[in-house]
Design goal:
The chain is an alpha/beta fold and 129 residues long. The chain has four helices and four strands, in the order H-E-H-E-H-E-H-E. Strands 1-3-2-4 form a four-stranded mixed sheet, sandwiched between helices. The longest helix has 13 residues, at 6-18.
Amino acid sequence: VNCSTPGNFFHVLRRQILLPFRKPLIIFTPKSLLRHPEARSSFDEMLPGTHFQRVIPEDGPAAQNPENVKRLLFCTGKVYYDLTRERKARDMVGQVAITRIEQLSPFPFDLLLKEVQKYPNAELAWCQE
């Protein structure tokens, strides 16, 4: 996994402990993300009934008008915050959607297919540090 929010990091550790069997958990999330000013989660994201999100979809203006999105970026981890800062600086908030992939293995093909179908006019791109 490569978590981009503290809430998701909490859930992946919780999920690992609650599994009825043991398997390795490989976490690519850097410790510097814990101090990143934009990487925040409310306690509502860690209450009972919440869970680990394998994919975190775009929830900003681009998601409100998916037909206007020209590019759909897939990323993982800390680079998301760099991408959102650059997207805002270039005034492309409504034209570029960013989807965060939190779980790399097994790869969430089912959830990514839904994201791709949501933005029919978008060019797909992968971005990493």
